[in-house]
Amino acid sequence: MIIALPATAVPSRCTLACAIAVALLAAAACHPAHAAEPSELAQNEADVVTTTLARVVVTASPVQPLTFTLDPRLPRQPVPASDGADYLKTIPGFSALRNGGTNGDPVLRGMFGSRLNLLTNGGAMPGACPSRMDNPLSYVGPETYDRLEVVKGPQTVLWGPGASAGTVRFDRDTPRFEQPGARVRGSVLGGNAGRNDQVLDATVGATAGYARLSANRSEAGDYASGNGTRVPSAWKKWNGDLALGWTPDADTLVELTAGAGDGVARYAGRSMDGAQFRRDSLGLRAERAFDGVLRKFEANAYQNVADHVMDNYSLRTPNPSGPMPMPMASNVERRTEGGRIAATFEWDAIELVAGLDSQDSVHRARKARGVDAYKDVAWATDAEFRNTGVFGEATWTLAPGQRIVAGARVDRATVDDERATVGKMMPKPNPTFGQQRRETLPGGFARFEKDIVGTGFGWYAGLGHVERMPDYWELFSPEAGPAGASNAFAGVDPERTTQLDLGAQYRGARMDAWVSAYAGRIDDFILFRYQPAGMTSVTSQASNVDARIHGAEAGVEFRPTPAWTLGATTAWAWGANTDDGTPLPQMTPAEARITAAWAQGRWSAGALLRAVRAQTRIAIDQGNVVGRDLGPSPGFATLALNAGVQLRDGVQLTAGVDNLFDRAYSEHLNLAGNADFGYPAMPVRIDEPGRTTWVKLGFEF
Question: In angstroms, rounded to a whole number, what is the distance separating the alpha carbons of residues 696 and 80?
Answer without folding.
Answer: 9
